[in-house]
């Protein structure tokens, strides 16, 4: 945090600085926007939610009566007469990680007050998220078409369907909410709310480009969670 | 009356209640006397702390109640006193934990000569299965359970054929013979608990849980379900009779094996059809009769 | 209460505003008073104009706190009535003609869930948290007032959904407050259809609402303190609520996941928690799930939940004892670290609720050890409370009586907790009335004593008038003596071996001996319950006619008493935020004229005193 300057406060480096900040008055995280601190703590809480899901999944997968289906077959895609395992999922992951990249760039241009670049990059991120959700919808419909349901599964243990739909659904909901907010923020960026410091709809706080970073934190988190879901569902 | 005195009477009353209470342990009938001893030890240490803390508090209240011209002491902390108290507490806690863990170690280590007993629970009743001459229980599956095979024994398991089946909620045990209770449930959680034996464990559908004890007092005891299992929970009872070796041998020789049952069933299939269902039905009727 | 320590307290807040408001160090007197300038610009607040935006959909944390308080108390009264009905059945079976086993189990379940989650958690964190945090740390409001409002209304909807389950076909769920699967989903349990779904939905709403509130409490404490307010100058109340909020933010996710999966098992027929089940001779379409998984999820939430209730109580009672014995809290640092330590440890003890659940028994060693380690910081807190009384100048008013009652009940319940945490002692005692007596004593009665003490303590701030002291003493003694005589003998029912959650228990030979005791306990329960209405009467009476309290009636030091107007207005501090120069426990400092020095008193005003540096 040493890039901030606070009147009357001396920053110290390293762990000593952390202890010094903690022991000081007014704020613990110096110069950190309230909303940003809130997002970090919310994400910590959300991490516990996803951890509970994934640990339950591991436990559930360990206690089924029937064998777990072979994931590379179930998630395989038939392209041009060739059976390619994990093709769709590789594409989805690629799109989501790319959108994380555009998000990071949007934050950078936001702080540089480059309104146009920032806005377009947020839009690109939103569209990446939409593509991801679309591909997930396709995958769901493919599995449903093949007879996989939350309560049954022709390929093996019914818990596969239960956990798959629940966890990817929960994650997909996160992505969808993120996409909605990305569109809203893109609009607000283009409209110049962050340049003018216009107040938001439900808050008395003034608009600031830090809000894009806050949304960016959420987006990167959703991306990171996907990496874990990907590893646990598709590679295990 | 000064509040301190009322508090003192409360503490005094608690101690007297503990000494003269007519409500205390049932007489122990198993090897888990160590659990009772640990509880007694906990009472001495914990009760001592409780009395000491409360008496100190009462003393303070009586001695230091508000006077206009007196000033309280200003002493933010006392490192030495805090250290002493921390260590004293740690020692007290360790003194309680050590015997607790030693006995738990015995509780989870089943002796080799323990007789395995399959206790099957359902809403709301019990039945039991003992190993036959081969000394081993046959494997089971819930989906196998039907009128002809009330325990769900796998028919292709050779160990299962001579298993002794007790389709009643009463079981007999041999005194001084360790038993390993293997619990299973076909529907919800249950818990096979005899207060006099002290030990208990949940029966969980889908898995087999276990615990062991050694009954050492001849007599009849009541089995209670100790894990909430629905509206019939409070009425889900059974019985245990601990017998001498001679009586027990006589009793077990009169019991039916799985093979006997199959033969009998083939002969008079019709009459035995509702063993499991009947039990269920009767119990249900009893519970719902108030409605 | 007597008049002798009233109205001595000048209104201290103004004195600090005249000195050292900027960064200047002009004179030698203001050098020692220097507090560095504000980091954060003033918070811009939304002021409501209409009745609805001022009192209903209000963004003022104080109003939200009172709203939480009233709604939680309302559900608490429902929980109380349910407990009466249960005790009626247990003490005098058949006395209530309509009482079937189904009803009894539904009442048990709803009583437990209401009291733990919708009453105690909501009251401590939503009620006291909202009211006290901004005042005690010197903020104008919570940092996200709108979110705070939504938090309350989510709680409102959650309570609505919960209570709606009384009116759906099948009634509310009767699965026990632990909602253990597969019990809660299968027929044979009352409310296995609608009841359990509404319960899960209500819990999910509660968690969502609480998350919004919890984010507010945490950020307000971490990032919106006033000038001079360091973490180690916060009252222990704030520390308790803060740590409890951290616990809640990390523990409620497990409940959310458990409730969601249970809803799916129920509605969609998935088998997360459902193994192969034979019901009435037929194998159900479930299979392969793990009932113990639900227990782990539930108790990973459930055990921190105990401390979510207990830690705010610890914090509040520390402040009350300190103020009313005119002495600093003994070992403040130790108290803070004990709160944080208990909070941290509470995530590693959950399976002590599951010693006989059928999980791998070898876990017992680990969880027994961690559970008993947690007893050490807890014991330190108890020592520090009674050492605070030592050589104090103790006002034996109603507030102090509640604190003393808390110490007795909490130590009693804490020690039986050591019994139950010690794994092999737990084996004979678990699932008996010993457990019921233990947790009611330690997390029912003890926190309730603190709540009551806090009401008598802070009512003069909220309403500007004192509660009636005589009525308060009646209320206290009836509640304390009554509750103690309910739960102290109840332990011995557990020793006999009476299992909990029995609709009726008199047909076993050794249980029949307890009939008399059960009747006695039930009578006591009726009296204690009725005694609570004294408080409601007291509040209604004194709101209009009580003795006016004025500024800082208890001569306390912490910021909430130093607002320019009583009760504090929206924005709390008038024109200028307070500046903090010391911890809130400078009572009876040698050399000072008064027996208290408020947090805003600058050092230059009390140079002759020997104050500890904080």
Fold and architecture overview:
The complex is a heterotrimer of chains A (236), B (291) and C (614). Chain A is mostly helical and 236 residues long. Chain A contains eight helices and two strands, in the order αααββααααα. Chain A has a two-stranded antiparallel ribbon with strand order 1-2. In chain A, a hairpin with a 2-residue loop joins strand 1 (77-79) and strand 2 (82-84). Chain A is globular and about 65 Å long. Chain B has two domains: 3-64 and 76-108; 115-288, Cupredoxins -  blue copper proteins (Immunoglobulin-like, Sandwich), CATH 2.60.40. Chain B contains six helices and eleven strands. In chain B, strands 8-5-1-2-3-11 form a six-stranded mixed β-sheet. A five-stranded mixed β-sheet of chain B has the order 4-10-9-6-7. Chain B is elongated. Residues 284-291 of chain B have low confidence and may be disordered. In chain C, strand 1 and strand 2 (282-283) form a beta hairpin. Chain C is an all-alpha fold. Mean pLDDT of chain C is 89; it is low at 1-27. Chain C has helices at 13-18, 28-31, 51-56, 61-91, 101-137, 145-164, 194-223, 236-267, 291-324, 332-345, 363-389, 398-421, 423-429, 433-463, 469-496, 515-545, and strands spanning 278-279, 282-283. In chain C, helix 5 (101-137) packs across helix 9 and helix 8 runs antiparallel to helix 9 (291-324). Chains in contact: A-C, B-C. At the B-C interface, helix 1, helix 2, helix 3, strand 7 and strand 9 of B face helix 5, strand 1, helix 10, helix 11 and helix 12 of C.
Would you kindly provide a brief summary of this structure?
The complex is a heterotrimer of chains A (236), B (291) and C (614). Chain A contains 8 helices and 2 strands. Helix content of chain A is 68%, strand content 3%.
Properties at a glance:
heterotrimer; B: 291 residues; alpha+beta; Immunoglobulin-like; 2 domains; five-stranded mixed β-sheet; 6 helices; 11 strands; 38% helix; C: 614 residues; mainly alpha; 16 helices; 2 strands
